[in-house]
């Protein structure tokens, strides 16, 4: 699996992502500056976390119109696999590659903490190493992670099994109006969603930051191991 | 032409900033504040276009970039 990480001005989590990808692929991912437009030979495009373009206008709004995103759209149209984490998720919604939007956290605070995610769907490239209902710990760090979508889009996401992860407590209980288990106030406690073909996944928390015992755990590793399995050539 | 684009969260979308400001106004003793909504005002200086075209162009800019139509509505006003 040859992975590429897109780097925008203001991106700051690309090296964390590179560590996770190197851990499972054994090779360094390609770093792609936002002015580039060539994704040839790439199996997985990753949009990492950070504050692209200083979060000006809306988080991810400017990045969605940068030159590389034209290539990413073509890559998606050809059935390419894309993972967007944190700011990367915001960029994917701003690019209309995923439905919905990320609003300011319900409590208006920047959150930097661990959370628990419940896996909602198995047998996708992003969740195949887990079983439905599995719970894992992952860090999150964002000010605008409050997922929302209109009723119609939500019905489609829920109906088609395109909610990948929900915020939960350590035992896997999901309660959307509980700030303890759903820290940013996301609708239906949604933490990550999938595209119609399940090849694009956006999520606010950072599984790449828990892939080594030295980081305090390997709870996020199954996501990356699963991607390698799914995309092996 | 000077054009003003106002971007507001859609009616059904919760506005926690507006809520916090509403609470603060109550704390300061301003009574009767029912609802507070926070938005953005973007002023554009457009050259070489008349009012009608300026209005149209600003609308196009709003739909493409200035507003996220999933969560926001916009209005355009030619001011000078």
End-to-end separation of chain B: 6 Å
How confident overall, as mean pLDDT of chain A? 97
Strand order within the widest beta sheet of chain B: 2-1-3
Unreliable stretches of chain A: none
Cα-based radius of gyration of chain B, to the nearest Å: 16 Å
Largest sheet data of chain A:
9 strands, mixed
Question: How many domains make up the 3D coordinates of chain A?
Answer: 1
Approximately how much beta-strand content do the residues of chain B carry? 25-35%
Helix-strand makeup class of chain B: alpha+beta
> Could you report the average pLDDT of chain B, rounded to the nearest whole number?
95
- Under CATH, the topology of chain A can be stated as Rossmann fold
DSSP strand (E) fraction of chain A?
15-25%
Helix content of chain A: 10-25%
Instruction: Give the helix proportion of chain B (percent range).
Output: 25-40%
- Low-confidence runs of at least 5 consecutive residues of chain B: none
Assign the CATH superfamily of chain A: Class I glutamine amidotransferase (GATase) domain
Order of helices and strands of chain B: EHEHE
Structural domain count of chain B:
1
User: What does the oligomeric state look like here?
Assistant: heterodimer
CATH H-level superfamily of chain B:
Phosphoribosylformylglycinamidine synthase subunit PurS
Please summarize what this structure is.
Chain B: This is Phosphoribosylformylglycinamidine synthase subunit PurS. Chain B: It holds the Pfam family PurS. The complex is a heterodimer of chains A (233) and B (80). Chain A is α/β, with parallel strands linked by helices and 233 residues long.
Give a verbal description of the structure:
- The complex is a heterodimer of chains A (233) and B (80).
- Chain A has 233 residues and is an alpha/beta fold.
- Chain A has a single domain (3-231), classed as 3-Layer(aba) Sandwich (Rossmann fold).
- Chain A contains five helices and eleven strands.
- In chain A, the strands form two sheets. Chain A has a nine-stranded mixed β-sheet, sandwiched between helices. A two-stranded antiparallel sheet of chain A has the order 5-8.
- The model of chain A has no long low-confidence stretch (mean pLDDT 97).
- With 80 residues, chain B is an alpha+beta fold.
- Chain B is built from two helices and three strands, in the order βαβαβ.
- The A-B interface holds A 57-58, 61, 65, 93-94, 99-101, 103-108, 146, 148-150, 185 and B 12-14, 16-17, 20, 64-66, 68, 70-71.
